[in-house]
């Protein structure tokens, strides 16, 4: 079982961000963390959690580094008995707020992996994206993380942004690989509803040849691609758990949880969530819904798709793709060698 904890507070709202996050709710931090504690207590019972049942924890946002380690203490005290001995515990962090003191405080609580929202090492691009840090802040934050003792460190980069050139992206990758990281996430900029970029669709400029070049460049640094946006000499256990379709608790305003074929959606509104953190919408997935999700997720990652998941007609179509080397079959599992074709392959099989 996995655990995701959502922190909706941010220093600034990035121009591309569609996540449930706010820059004007900092006065609610303490009461929000208390509500998280209440929901987690409820979820641990609902998911029938026992000793060693939580394999991974991922604290995302928003910006988890805007919340003091002191406020996280009750949460960690609550979940600690349920963690496996080798649990991967990740927190996202922004370079401007992930001070050395914050990082040390989180490490003392048990966090053993940090994921930094860097996005670029180009100052002009960071300003365009409305990021609150400078390239130097990013370098210092990641350097501090290694000095403190974090062995597993990741950073995010964004590409396909208006103004991106091969030279700019090459510099971003060069700077990234000069730092003590063992994981990198590379995301193409997408224009989402409700974001500052919604009325500026020209801001996203993805070109297939440039995307392929980026992926190849990353892998030349011995960071293996194990999902459409993720690379590393270390693979995130939390990410892999989602793609393996494991159950996960989703705690926080706007988080999502899954148990068997049910999904749980707490309120996205922070005030409503604080008032009643265990009130949530429940969605029941049909067996067919779950089957299709497994196919789409499997082809986007190194997990692959068991041939047994497919219908007889889909198995015939899969054979065509195997003959064309669009899919690889090993020990009853179909693997996609080109993640950029993931959705196209899934649609071909299932439509």
Which key terms come to mind for this protein?
351 residues; alpha/beta; pyruvate-formate lyase- activating enzyme; 2 domains; three-stranded antiparallel sheet; coproporphyrinogen oxidase activity; heme; chaperone; iron-sulfur
What topology does this entry show?
Blueprint: E1 2-7, H1 29-46, E2 54-61, H2 69-79, E3 83-93, H3 100-109, E4 113-119, H4 123-128, H5 135-148, E5 152-159, H6 166-177, E6 183-188, H7 208-220, E7 224-227, E8 230-232, H8 237-243, E9 248-251, E10 257-259, E11 262-266, H9 270-275, E12 280-284, H10 287-299, E13 305-306, H11 312-323, E14 328-330, E15 333-335, H12 342-350
Parallel strand pairs: 1-2, 1-9, 2-3, 3-4, 4-5, 5-6
Antiparallel strand pairs: 6-8, 7-8, 10-11, 11-12, 13-15, 14-15
Helix pairs in contact: 1-2, 2-3, 3-5, 6-7, 10-12, 11-12
């Amino acid at each position: 079982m996995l655990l995701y904890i959502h922190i909706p507070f941010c220093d600034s709202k990035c121009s591309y961000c569609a996540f449930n996050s706010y820059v004007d709710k900092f006065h609610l931090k303490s009461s929000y963390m208390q509500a998280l504690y209440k929901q987690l207590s409820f979820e641990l019972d609902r998911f029938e959690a026992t000793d060693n049942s939580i394999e991974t924890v991922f604290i995302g946002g928003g910006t988890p580094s805007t919340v003091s380690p002191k406020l996280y203490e009750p949460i960690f005290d609550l979940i600690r008995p349920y963690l496996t001995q080798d649990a991967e515990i990740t927190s996202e962090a922004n370079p401007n707020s992930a001070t050395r003191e914050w990082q040390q405080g989180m490490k003392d609580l048990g966090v053993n992996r940090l994921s930094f929202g860097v996005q670029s090492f180009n100052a002009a691009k960071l300003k365009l994206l409305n990021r609150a840090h400078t390239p130097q802040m990013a370098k210092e934050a990641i350097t501090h993380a290694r000095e403190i003792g974090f062995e597993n460190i990741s950073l995010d980069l964004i590409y396909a942004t208006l103004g991106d050139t091969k030279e700019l992206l090459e510099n971003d990758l060069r700077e990234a690989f000069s730092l003590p990281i063992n994981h990198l996430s590379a995301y193409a900029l997408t224009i989402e509803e409700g974001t500052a970029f919604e009325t500026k669709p020209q801001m996203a400029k993805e070109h297939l040849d440039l995307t392929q070049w980026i992926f190849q460049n990353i892998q030349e640094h011995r960071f293996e691609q194990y999902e459409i946006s993720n690379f590393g000499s270390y693979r995130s256990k939390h990410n892999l758990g989602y793609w393996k379709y494991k159950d996960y608790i989703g705690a926080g305003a706007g988080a999502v949880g899954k148990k068997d074929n049910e999904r749980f959606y707490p309120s996205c509104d922070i005030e409503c969530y604080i008032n009643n953190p265990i009130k949530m919408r429940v969605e029941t997935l049909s067996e067919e819904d779950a089957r299709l999700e497994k196919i789409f997720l499997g082809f986007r990652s190194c997990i692959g798709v068991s041939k047994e998941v497919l219908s007889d007609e889909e198995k015939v179509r899969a054979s065509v793709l195997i003959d064309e080397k669009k899919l690889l079959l090993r020990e009853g599992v179909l693997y996609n060698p080109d993640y950029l074709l993931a959705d196209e392959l899934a649609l071909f099989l299932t439509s």
